[in-house]
Amino acid sequence: MSEYPVFQLGKPRFDQSTFFGRFRHFLDVIDPSTLFVSEKRLKESIDLLQRFKEGTLPPGVTNEKLWKAQKIKQAIIHPDTGEKILMPFRMSGFVPFGTPVVVGLLLPNQTLMSTIFWQWLNQSHNACVNYSNRNASQPNPTSAFVYGYLGAVTSAVSIAVGLNVLIQRAKGFSPSSRVLVQRFIPFPAVASANLCNVVLMRQWELSEGISVVNEDGNVVGTSKVAAKYALLETALTRIVMPMPILVLPPMIMANLEKLPLLQGNPRLVLPIHALVCLASFAFALPLAISLFPQTSQISVEKLEPEIAKAADSKTVYYNKGL
Questions:
Q1: Which one is predicted more confidently, 2 or 164?
Q2: How far is residue 58's CA from residue 61's CA, in Å, rounded to a whole number?
Q3: List of residues 6+ apart from 225 with CB closer than 8 A
Q4: Calpha distance 289→306 (Å, rounded)
Q5: Do the beta carbons of residue 288 and residue 240 sit within 8 Å?
Q6: Mean pLDDT across the stretch 308-320?
Q7: Furthest-apart CA pair in the chain: how many Å?
Q8: 313 falls in which pLDDT band (50, 70, 90)?
Q9: Which of 33, 65, 173, 316 could hold 212 in an S-S bridge, CB 3.0 to 4.6 Å?
Q10: 282-286: long-range contacts, CB 8 A cutoff, minimum separation 24
């Protein structure tokens, strides 16, 4: 199979029904090289895609050039508003701009104030990324994002501070064991905040429902039952996503710090810690996201009767979101 298949406007380049296809797709999505695209190159990419849509492509334009043009446009321009997304809040900027926050979250021997600061900064960055890449095709009250943000910050800070206090007061830990256990606190704090964020920001879907489509992509109805499944799947995804990013670095650093090189040169610990976090973030993030397809299928028998009547097949599909 060719590395660049026949171009399809608005479609992913890689097969989304397989894990490897989704993994390669998300590697493209978070590719930081698009952060350095010039205004001229962006304009050329947008013009090329417009000419493809109008059927006026000049001769000699390859599928490779079209796929690269679409990658650039999708990385920079919001699909619904048509406006440029600020660089720190693009998906392609998630790793380079998010890595310093991850390093801060995983620093050993945190104080109460540093724990609160890094958890707040992480949730603030996540909120800005979520808002900048939101689905703007349907009106969504700003209050939903505000409630989601406040809920995420509150739950993250509360759990991180609470667990730190419990571990500090626990008498069964040696000093070294206490430091090791504290390094894993960011994961439950961030995972619970992600869960809280999903519930608060998307609770309106439970009352309004979400669109379900047939195999041809045609909407056959709006389902509250599908919304429940979508919310559960998204919640699971949000719990799994930070796991490799916040669990692997503490495990790796706990072993690296035993090496004579780092014990004799403590100044090397922080830069090596940063490199470990960057590597985990860059490779584990697309792996975690790729575990679950963006589009899920469901039997019409599980949905509302009116949708079962309107559907022309036994299975329909819905987008669960991230």
A1: 164
A2: 7
A3: 302, 303, 304
A4: 33
A5: yes
A6: 80
A7: 75
A8: confident
A9: 316
A10: 282/30, 282/95, 284/244, 284/245, 284/248, 285/26, 285/30, 285/94, 285/95, 285/241, 285/244, 285/245, 286/23, 286/26, 286/27, 286/29, 286/30
* Mean pLDDT value across the chain: 87
SS (H, E, C) the chain: CCCCCCCCCCCCCCCCCCHHHHHHHHHHHCCHHHHHCCHHHHHHHHHHHHHHHHCCCCCCCCHHHHHHHHHHHHHHECCCCCCECCHHHCHHHHHHHHHHHHHHHCCCCCCHHHHHHHHHHHHHHHHHHHHHCCCCCCCCCHHHHHHHHHHHHHHHHHHHHHHHHHHHHCCCCCHHHHHHHHCCCHHHHHHHHHHHHHHHHHHHHHHHCEEEECCCCCEEEEEHHHHHHHHHHHHHHHHHCHHHHHHHHHHHHHHHCCCHHHHHCHHHHHHHHHHHHHHHHHHHHHHHHHCCCCEEEEEHHHCCHHHHHHCCCCEEEEECCC
Which residues neighbour 257 within 8 Å (Cβ) at sequence distance 6 or greater? Answer: 263, 269
